[in-house]
Amino acid sequence: MPRAIEQIVDTYVRLKNRRGLDELMMHRQRLAVDLKSRSGYDFSLPIGQIDEEIAIIEAGLSRLKAESAGLGPSSPV
Predict the structure, then answer these.
(1) Which residue, 16, 20, 70, 71, could crosslink 66 as a Cys pair with Cβ 3.0–4.6 Å?
(2) What is the model's pLDDT at position 71?
(3) What's the superkingdom here (predicted)?
(4) Among 35, 28, 29, which residue's Cα sits nearest to residue 4?
């Protein structure tokens, strides 16, 4: 089963919602910065998950950019 973030990103890309993807990215980046600045507990697991989510969002932004440039699956062959 696909992870929730993948479904969210796919929906934003399908709807061409660049702003939604940008906001999702900023939120995950703030979370990562906050967790990396904390001490007293091992946050490596949640930081790793957030980094994976950031990579998924970046891939979605790339797909959206490619589709808007006419290189995506919706372009004629």
Answers:
(1) 71
(2) 66
(3) Bacteria
(4) 28
For residue 69, the model assigns a pLDDT of 84
**Helices marked H in 15-70 — which ranges?**
18-37, 44-68
Q: Phi and psi for 16 in degrees, rounded to 5?
A: 55, 40
- Give the whole-angstrom CA distance, residue 36 versus residue 38: 6
Q: What's the average pLDDT block by block, 10 residues per block, for the chain (77 residues)? A: 85 96 97 94 94 97 89 54
If one counts every other C-beta atom within 10 angstroms of the C-beta of residue 52, the result is 13
Helix (H) or strand (E) holding 71: none
How many other C-beta atoms can be found within 10 angstroms of the C-beta atom of residue 12?
22
